[in-house]
Amino acid sequence: MSDFNPPAGRSVALVTGATNGIGRDVALKLAEQGHAVLVHGRDESRGAAVVKQITEAGGTAKFIAADLTDLEALNGLAAAAGDVDVLVNNAGFSWFGPTADLAADTFDALFAANVRSAYYLTAALAPKMAARGTGSIINLGSMVGQIGLSGSAAYGATKAALAALTRAWAAEFSPSGVRINTIAPGPAYTAGAAADRIAALGKTTLLDRAAAADEIADVIAFLASPQAGYITGALIPADGGRTAV
Q1: What are the residues facing 237 on neighbouring strands?
Q2: pLDDT tens digits, residue range 17-41?
């Protein structure tokens, strides 16, 4: 049973990895849109800071800690969340380097964090959305899931997997009213990324710059909104045109 009790009539959004970076900005944007936001992460102090920012602005939010690579913890998160109207599968991490340098345990951790967590959280929540006849799920992909970039083989494979899952889930759940999409950002400045590397990647885009995290969050918030009511099964690039040419 969920122990989260938002005001009556207010939709609930669960954002994974919402204590920093793009996820944090998504949580703030969705709160601005009127959603009650479940802020997921692993750092309680950072989670409390996001919740405080939302509630001080008049919104409703709660922090839930969970290690999404642990299936028991993931199931606990799904149970605590209850009936979710919007799910943003944002949590995960990246690894870049020569293929031969990637240790097997890091490879497994990449897929557990980036793919398996999204799979089983969707498996827990999407059927309940379908039973209610409405819902929106947004998966955080990447431009490296669509193009070849040296050093990104394993990470790119996790993001390509999310795009494939999105199409299959749309086929499964959209006839019941659940929209499922992937956003594929290009280089974006976040606290966990090396700014010089992001800036260099930004120079490879048609707009000649990297994105701010809130620019990506804006697209995710749009996909969660009724204005995107006819979009499902799509991969939406937000990469400054990097994959267009």
Answers
A1: 184
A2: 999 999 999 999 999 999 999 999 9
Report, as residue numbers or ranges, the catalytic residues. 155
The Cα 57–Cα 50 span in angstroms is 11
With H, G, I as helix, E, B as strand and everything else as coil, classify residue 18: coil
Q: Encoding tokens for residue 225?
A: 């909104």
- Exposure on the CB side of residue 27, measured as CA atoms within 13 A: 35
> Which residues on neighbouring strands pair with residue 37, listed in sequence order?
13, 61
Per-residue model confidence as pLDDT tens digits over 96-151: 999 999 999 999 999 999 999 999 999 999 999 999 999 999 999 999 999 999 99
Give the whole-angstrom CA distance, residue 26 versus residue 140: 11
Entry pTM: 0.95
Q: Which two tokens stand for residue 52?
A: 């405080």
The C-alpha atoms of residue 111 and residue 126 are separated, in whole angstroms, by 21
Domains in the chain, start-ordered, CATH in brackets? 12-238 (3.40.50.720)
